[in-house]
Specification:
By secondary structure, the protein is mainly alpha-helical. Helices cover 67% and strands 2% of the residues. A two-stranded antiparallel ribbon has the order 1-2.
Amino acid sequence: MADKLYAGLLYDEAVRKYAQTVQSVCIVRLRSLADAEDCMQNTFIKLYTKAPVFKSEEHLKAWLLKVAINECNQFFRANRRHLSLDEIHDIPLPLSSDELDISWALMKLEPKYREVLYLYYGERYTSEQIAKILGKNHNTVRTMLRRGREKLKMIYGGGVGE
């Protein structure tokens, strides 16, 4: 199984290529670096043990993000503990430099808005792709993006556009 290919990538290559993305999604969702690393590890364990067949690298990435989000949701159900915003100010967010200035505001949003905004702006997914990843209706995702932007504008006090 070590030689198995995932959309043309060996397992180690897939981990190297997508670890940062999966970790970012988990951090945005969980607001805890240690918990995010656990969920990220579980995501890649599932990739290795389930060894699904992927049509493309985009399919692999979408699968990893969906599994990571499900792992985070399962973590919430199992632990039922949440950090206050005061506890997360020292957590480094692995976002690109043009997104760092609003990362603190993203962390103040409800998880459903954080996720869609991060996937849209951070990972550059379309609303249709986000709907598939999250298993939601396309119009629901568009509404969540709009409401999330409005909330982000109120927190950030600036203009975050499409």
